[in-house]
Specification:
Blueprint lengths: L5 H18 L2 H17 L5 H15 L2 H17 L3 H17 L3 H18 L2 H14 L7 H14 L4 H15 L2 H18 L5 H5 L12 H13 L13 H7 L3 H11 L2 H10 L3 H14 L2 H13 L11 H4 L7 H11 L4 H8 L3 H14 L5 H11 L5 H6 L12
Helix pairs in contact: 1-2, 2-3, 2-4, 3-4, 4-5, 4-6, 5-6, 6-7, 6-8, 7-8, 8-9, 8-10, 9-10, 10-12, 12-13, 13-14, 14-15, 15-16, 16-17, 19-21, 19-22, 20-21
Length: 412
């Protein structure tokens, strides 16, 4: 399963089932149920996730916290890999406190790493850095370190901080040691992103490109797509016609960047959306991409896009905002800034959830966190404080200045 050899995994599960039928080993029965269900999820089978949830409930009734945590770790890792971010967040919300309380250390590290990756994809990079750093400083198990190294390294790279390079190098060495496609492909993609961002070369990518033909394996569509897209951005000659890649990547590789950006927006992945918009080469789309990158604090990527625009002779390229105007005052994460802006427009939690493509429960959690961080009790007070801090526009002042304000999108 870890090697993405689904045929081999199924064959061995079938042999193990024969043992289980004779031995009546309940722990083995649960373990096999996990592997069978994860393999089915990787292969895209309908109902596979529901079966894994059923295994989780079975483990909850009959087995200890370690068995339950193993199931939850497998579920969240594949959920994040396949970009079911709200589903992953819901499981992590229940499971992470239990792994901490019961001191199930490896499962806790794996799940924190999965949550760090989830935050990275959602654009909540402060939260991603915090989770990744917690694992790297607190876990001695190397098996828990690959994603925290990648997440922390990518956040540092994208935001222009020092130190990300060493973490990405370490993630690559860890991935090579394990030899698993779902570790190797993301680590190679991170190296390629660093080359694109910094304009430097990396001879390791000559070997990384050779990973793609083997990436036509079920369950690798998202990670293979990430690597293929970054190699294409670097100008590498990549035959992507036979690759199994996820829809947003396929749209981009087929020359439909705007459709790819829309797909990433639906999934709630702002960084990937912005880069797809910039790939369009259209002035308006690229300027909009820069606005997203600046809001995320993706200084390095935004600088690369600005250089490309000026090299092409595009005029009127928006300047990089001053730090004071793009910071998130009040300690708000990037996602919480998104929420408070919609909150200030008078949207309900259900409407915020629909607009940001998150669950209503997740929206409610964001609103509660915003009220706590801004030290207010009502949504109206939060909106007022956010305007004072410059997080949301002061529409009255904008009207007096004759600048107008952005129209509020229609509610759905």
């Amino acid at each position: 399963m870890q090697a993405s050899d689904l045929v081999g995994a199924r064959e061995r599960c079938a042999r193990a089932r024969e043992v289980t039928d004779v031995a009546r080993d309940r722990a083995l029965d649960v373990r096999l149920g996990v592997i069978e269900s994860v393999v089915a999820m990787m292969d895209g089978e309908d109902g596979a996730r529901d079966r894994l949830l059923a295994v989780l409930e079975h483990a909850r009734e009959r087995f200890d916290e370690e068995a339950r945590s193993t199931v939850a770790s497998s579920l969240t890792e594949i959920d994040v890999e396949q970009r079911r971010l709200d589903d992953a967040a819901e499981v992590l919300e229940r499971s992470l406190p239990l792994t901490a309380e019961r001191d199930v250390r490896i499962a806790h590290g794996l799940q924190l790493g999965a949550r760090a990756r989830l935050h990275l994809l959602r654009g909540a990079w402060d939260d991603a850095r915090r989770d990744a750093s917690t694992v790297l400083s607190g876990s001695r198990s190397a098996v828990t370190h690959t994603w925290p190294c990648l997440v922390r390294g990518l956040v540092e790279l994208r935001t222009g901080r020092i130190g990300g390079g060493d973490l990405l190098d370490r993630a690559w060495e860890l991935a090579r040691g394990y030899g698993e496609p779902l570790k190797l492909l993301p680590a190679a993609a991170a190296l390629a992103e660093r080359c694109w961002t910094t304009g430097t070369a990396d001879s390791r990518l000559d070997d990384a490109a050779a990973l793609l033909p083997a990436a036509a394996l079920p369950g690798t569509e998202w990670s293979a797509g990430d690597l293929a897209v970054w190699l294409v951005r670097l100008g590498r000659d990549v035959d992507t016609t036979r690759l199994r890649v996820a829809e947003p990547h396929r749209l981009l590789l087929d020359g439909r960047p705007s459709a790819s950006a829309a797909s990433w927006e639906t999934l709630g992945c702002p960084y990937e959306r912005a880069l797809a918009m910039a790939d369009s080469g259209e002035r308006t789309e690229t300027f909009a991409a820069l606005e997203i990158l600046d809001r995320l604090g993706a200084d390095a990527a935004a600088a690369r896009v600005r250089r490309d625009l000026r090299r092409r002779g595009v005029t009127g390229v928006p300047l990089r905002p001053r730090t004071s105007t793009r910071a998130n005052p009040g300690g708000l994460t990037s996602r919480q800034v998104d929420v408070v802006r919609l909150l200030a427009d008078g949207l309900t939690n259900a409407e915020i959830a629909a607009r940001l493509v998150i669950s209503e429960k997740t929206a409610d959690h964001h609103v509660s966190a915003i009220l706590t961080k801004l030290d207010v009790r009502t949504r109206r007070e939060a909106a007022a404080v956010a305007r004072t801090l410059g997080v949301t526009p002061d529409r009255r002042r904008a009207s007096r200045d004759g600048a107008g304000s952005d129209p509020v999108p229609p509610r759905t």
